[in-house]
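User: Show me a protein chain along with its predicted structure.
Assistant: Here is one chain, sequence first, then structure tokens.
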Amino acid sequence: MRWGWLARNPVSAATRPEVPRTTVTLPAAAQVRAALAAAAAATDPALACWLQIAVATGARRGEVCALRWADIDLDAATMRIHRSVSATKTAGVFIKTTKTGGVRLVSLTTQAVAALHHRHARADQTALAAGRQVEPAHQIFTSDPSGQRPWRPELVTRRWERLRNRAGLSHVRIHDLRHFVATELLTAGIDALTVANRLGHARTSTTLDIDWAWVPARDRDAANHLESLLD
């Protein structure tokens, strides 16, 4: 079409097949708390910190893996997200921009800040044993003694799958934690723009299209509001 070889695009007459939506099994808040407690009690404090950040921000798996200490302001309890980790068989592990290419600043929960303090203390111990110190450019989640290489996203998934069985969440994928964050915030009345920013969606319509279907119906609240106005 661009080269002028065809007068009409034959694809325009095609009918796109329906794409089935992925079934999302949202964990309850009590189940998420149980998973966090199981991670804290297990011999995997790094995963416990990773999960605290994930459920505090709704960030993508690769975005949490890409975090460096320079991205965290523990005093202000904020986190800057502007990178993501990917891994392929050909390219290996590499860091790229976020899915939307943007930069966002999100606030952290008290639990996430406490987990990061603990993570930093352990990183200090590891660095001192190697005769160095933790630098702002070092990765937060890394198995590299020099702090240069981030976790592979698949590593987090494997650790989560081992943990979730102990927490009774064998039916929940790690990506479902993002849906949990979105639906809990929307249900609590947090505006869609704020929720979209935390999740890294370029448009609020994306947030509503993906997650609004899982928000409990508010139609009764609407009727009660009108009733109070007309009473």
